[in-house]
Amino acid sequence: MDLLLIPRLILELVLYLATVVPDLLPIIVSLATPLALGALCGVLNERSGVVNIGIEGTMLAAAFTGYLTGFALHANTGPAVAIVAGVAVAIGTGALIGLLHAWLCVTVRADQIIAGTIVNIGALGLTAYFNRLIISPSGLGGAGVIPPILFGLGPIALSMLALVGLLQFLLFRSRWGLRTRAVGEHPKAADTVGIDVFRQRYQNVIAGCALAGLAGAYLTLESTGSFQNGMTNGRGFIALAAMIFGRWTPIGAFGGALLFGAFTALGVIVRVRPAPGELGDLLAAIPSFWYAALPYLVTVVILAGVVGRAIPPAADGIPYEKEARA
Amino acid sequence: MIAAVRARAAAWWRVARLPVLAIVLALVIAAGIIVLSSVYTGLGFFPLLPLYAYGNLAAGAFGSAVAINNTLVAAAPLMLGGLAIGLGFRAGLFNIGVAGQFLAGAFAAAVVGSSLAGAPPLLAVPAALLAGGLAGTVLGFVPGFLKARTGAHEVVTTIMLNNATALLLAWAVSDLVRAPGFTFPRTGDIGSAALPVLLGRNLHLGIPLAFAAVFAIRFLLDRTTLGFEIRTVGANPNAARYAGIPPLVIVPLTMSLSGLLAGLAGSVQMLGVIGFYASGISASVGFDSIAVALLGRSDPIGIMFAAILFGAFRAGAPLMQITTSVPVEIIDIIQALIILFLAADLIVRRVFRVRGPRLEVEGAQTVTRTWGKESVA
């Protein structure tokens, strides 16, 4: 009897998940939205040969500036204008950080991991500094939250879905995509046929970071309606894992983001829709801290299982020098 | 005699000028940020605010014997944490997991320390220190092993482990090892496992320990076979393999050593300063250590000076915030700016008209080159 207990529980778990997941798809997609946008940022950067571990900081800085804009305009212009302006400012912040990252990685040829670290530490410091000076003293005023418009999803989550498809098409079916991949695989060859390697990399890093900015706007303006220090909480790095999991393709990265979103949702699901019988007792007995830690541990396991078999762009992380010997 | 001194000074300046000038430039830019944000401090627009802020920062860090003690106490975990990251860099590894290893070390030291609270200090102190070091070692080994075997890059795995560690320790302290009689989840008092105070109110044994670690790591890197192997793997893992040095062994070993140092940083902070583990204790040492290691350019002596500088920032910042309302987070901004000016040293060269070879952090390139690549095995 006891021998059969574990297989039976596993079977029950699978059946339970199969019944609850479809209903909870909107939650999973919502949780996956910042991860997917961050992963798209990673895809755009790394396909052109620039490693960006600063996605976390880019998201955080944009989440802050977007929230601050909405917060400042809220009383004067009404919520609609405030939120649109907030999203625009967040995207602009992302693009601006992208410009800094591109300058460091492409023009200065600084170490790309260190460049990303600068973005991460700088964003953490600047947002906490201005949070203490501007937002905290003024009390808890919200900037408003974007309401869901379709299938329980807000406009940013929906545009993420569209962006995944669009970028998958552009990356593999357009002139821009071909150039991007050429610059990321063999910049010297791309240079020889007249593609401006520097320009292509600048474009991709800035566009990618604008998407990370949109992810930041999602966190403060569509998901929570508030800002906390360090609220990205590792999402920028989970996004990188999703990108690697998806083998540097937009669709694959989206799949990875959904998987991590599902694991994050698990802690919510078991409380909202308790499972029946022994399985329910077991799932309810697991402390909530364990559920919270689960997506991070899953990231490590998946990363350990998938890399090595996933091949990054050949010139990923290597600055391009025009006159250097290949 | 004078000529000899001058030659020594010139040689020293050649090594230190770019980091020192990067610090100066970072302080200038941060001063600009303080001026621009002065309207929010309640003082109105106030161009002289940076002078007051930096003055109070310096007073809080070096103004009195107590202040200097505080600086050294804050510097000790940064020195150990900086060595942890610096040692990793030398092997081409970026251990961002110092924050998690620090927490694990602090937790293990608190648990072992509180269970030995009544034992003689000669037993309790080493046991608690060792427990903290061991916890960090285990947490460092895992990403090292995964990198060597599977190629999972340590930048992602260590950060994931940081988050998971913080959450699992929060559970452990609220459930597993919660001490009775307190209104919030925490471990018991460490009693006789507290590091003995050597001088003044708080200058504890951890400070000489951190300085000793600086010279131990220097000896390890410069004078031992293992150190040579670590540096070779950092310079070029493929060349190392052809030379018969197995990265498969060196990578997990270096990450374990790095975790050991980070765990010790946690136990020193726990046994010398904090005294009990509660969820939410600051792991800012983890991120400060990155700046310390980069500013010290992964060199143990450089890390020692960088740790004292950042220890001074951390010790002086509260006084600055109280007296001038400039938020302590300006320190994080200064850190990011310092690393920025070190990475983009052409800015420093242009501004100060310095010539000389480019600044590189030894091994950092290997960190980037192994991104997404398959295992080193």
Query: How much of the sequence of chain B is in beta strands?
Result: under 5%
Helix content bin of chain A: over 70%
Question: Which class best fits the helix and strand makeup of chain A?
Answer: mainly alpha
CATH class of chain B: Mainly Alpha
Number of domains of chain A: 1
Total helical elements of chain B: 15
The mean pLDDT of chain A is 86
CATH architecture of chain A: Orthogonal Bundle
Mean pLDDT of chain B: 88
DSSP strand (E) fraction of chain A?
Answer: under 5%
Number of domains of chain B: 1
Strand order of the largest sheet of chain B: 1-2
> Gap between N and C termini of chain A, in Å?
66 Å
Structural class of chain B: mainly alpha
Major sheet characteristics of chain B: 2 strands, antiparallel
Series of H and E elements of chain A:
HHHHHHHHHHHHH
Instruction: Count interface residues per chain for the largest interface.
Output: A-B, 54 and 57 residues
Biggest sheet character of chain A = none
Quaternary state of this entry equals heterodimer
**Uncertain stretches of chain A:** none
Distance between the termini of chain B: 54 Å
What can you see in these coordinates?
The complex is a heterodimer of chains A (326) and B (377). With 326 residues, chain A is an all-alpha fold. Chain A has a single domain (17-306), classed as ABC transporter involved in vitamin B12 uptake, BtuC. Chain A contains 13 helices and no strands. Chain A has helices at 2-20, 25-47, 55-77, 79-107, 112-135, 155-173, 175-185, 187-192, 197-224, 235-245, 250-272, 277-285, 288-306. The longest helix of chain A has 29 residues, at 79-107. Chain A is globular. Chain A starts with a helix and ends in a 20-residue tail after the last helix. Chain B is mainly alpha-helical. Chain B has one domain (2-369): ABC transporter involved in vitamin B12 uptake, BtuC, CATH 1.10.3470. Chain B has 15 helices and 2 strands. Chain B has helices at residues 2-36, 49-62, 65-90, 98-115, 121-150, 154-176, 206-223, 225-235, 237-242, 247-274, 284-295, 300-324, 330-343, 345-352, 364-369, and strands spanning 197-199, 203-204. Chain B has a two-stranded antiparallel ribbon. Chain B is globular. The interface between A and B is large, with 54 and 57 residues.
